[in-house]
Structure formats: C-alpha cells, structure tokens
Design a protein that fits this description.
3 helices, 7-stranded antiparallel β-sheet, 7 strands, Jelly Rolls, 2 domains, globular, 185 residues
C-alpha cells in the first residue's frame, strides 16, 4: 500500500503560518481623523480575534464590562490611560496589559492619541441574553409560566439562560449555574 500520497495530503491540509499585517503600515495608511478598528484578524477557522484600534487625542472608549473573554491590550503608538476598578494604568507604547473577563474598564487617549492591538479568544457567535431590566425579565418569566400547562418545550428559553455564560438550565434552576458556578441573577 502506498502511503506517500496520503502523507502529502495530510501535510497539505495542515494550517500554515503567515504574515498578517504590518501594523505601522496600517497606521500610516489611515486618515489622520480615522478612529476605531484599522485592522482585524479575519482568518477562517481561527481561535483568536485581534484588532488594531486607534483613538484620536483625548478620545475615550466608554466604561464597559467584557463578560466573555480575557483581553490583552498592547499600545503600539501614542499613549493613554486605562481606567479599571479603583486605579488608573498608564498605557505606554509596548507595555502589555491584561484585562480579565468580567472587569470594568474604560480607555482615554493621551495628547498624541493612542493606537493599540487587542487580542482575545474568538467569540463563539451570537448568544441570546436575558433582559437586564428586572421588570422586563419578570414579564418574560410570567409569560413562560402562563404557557406551562400547554405541554411541550417553552417557546422561549430566555428565563433558563445563565446571564454569565449563556448555558441553558435543564430542569429546575439551581442557586448557581452548573456550567460557570455563578449565581443566577
């Protein structure tokens, strides 16, 4: 049996390393007032996401919480400040910062603006999330309870989704999510 052909096929199917971008070139090509993502990792079948983001002088990324992924942030031009919890962290060129999932943060660009690379695990796609408004959630749960006598599966599983990880509760909801051990809100 000739295995040489199958070995070549296996080698050809292996992913290959490749040069993705010259980030200095991406910055140089952008218009002076261009803000936001200048480059994005777009390779198919990837496990990571990465973005080159630029903020003009004094611009901010409003306070937000990234619930799903840890993020590495690497400034490559300019400077700024990361506001996280009760501290401010200076963002200088080539200083690597870890932003753990669940942390609240905002960014303010310095007087020369700020360009930075973010890298994180690729998201698994869109997820359905429960309404943040307690009254809207109560209405949704009440609507599901009213239809409980109809038999079969509820039309909407939103009340059974963990607000932290998106896992679906099977059976009665426990005090904590069995997937991520976070309390149900």
């Amino acid at each position: 049996m000739n295995t040489a052909g199958s070995d070549i096929t296996k080698l050809a199917a292996q992913p290959a390393a490749s040069l993705l971008a010259d980030l200095d070139w991406c910055l140089a090509q952008a218009a002076d007032n261009q803000r936001g993502a200048l480059w994005r990792l777009a390779e198919p079948e990837r496990q990571l996401d990465a973005n080159l983001v630029r903020l003009p002088p004094g611009a901010t990324v409003e306070a937000h919480t990234e619930r799903d992924v840890d993020v590495l942030l690497l400034p490559i031009a300019g400077h700024g400040t990361l506001h996280a919890a009760d501290e401010s962290i200076a963002l200088a060129t080539h200083t690597l910062t870890w932003l753990p999932r669940g942390s609240r943060r905002s960014i303010t660009a310095g007087t020369d603006g700020l360009a930075y690379l973010t890298v994180h695990r690729a998201r698994t796609g869109m997820r359905i999330q429960l309404p943040a408004d307690p009254q809207a959630l109560a209405r949704l749960e009440a609507r599901e309870e009213e239809g409980a006598d109809e038999g079969g599966e509820a039309a909407c599983l939103l009340p059974r989704l963990c607000p932290h990880c998106g896992a679906v509760a099977t059976g009665a909801k426990t005090a904590v999510c069995p997937s991520c051990d976070q309390p149900w809100d």
